[in-house]
Write a structure and sequence with these properties.
The chain is α+β, with helices and mostly antiparallel strands. It is about 20% helix and about 20% strand. β2 and β3 form a beta hairpin.
């Protein structure tokens, strides 16, 4: 479509009056919109200044997110540094199982 070979251009189609439309929802873009903005729209990632697509298939959403974030998981589960060994197993008396916390990747 618009100027590059990026496969995510296939997720938009030309609309009227110099606009493009998302194939998965009613959202439209200016014809000069960057592919990055379209990928963020498809990725479902909030706080990027774009409207999130509510109709995108899960596999397209994941591919868009990976394309923008380098393939890392959305949330990385790591062991807490307090009272756990190197494998994330609690070392506290009576502490059975893993101690985990979420670390949000940016």
């Amino acid at each position: 479509m618009v100027g590059s070979n990026d496969p995510f251009w296939n997720s938009v189609e030309e609309s009227d009056k110099g606009r493009m439309k998302c194939k998965f929802c009613p959202h439209t873009y200016d014809i000069k919109t960057s592919i990055s903005r379209i990928k963020w729209h498809l990725s479902g990632e909030k706080r990027r200044g774009v409207v999130i697509c509510r109709g995108v298939p899960k596999e397209v959403q994941e591919a868009a997110w990976k394309a923008m974030c380098g393939g890392n998981k959305r949330q990385k589960i790591t062991a807490s540094s307090v009272n756990v060994n190197d494998c994330g197993i609690s070392t506290m008396e009576g502490g059975i199982g893993r101690v985990q916390r979420e670390v949000h990747m940016q």
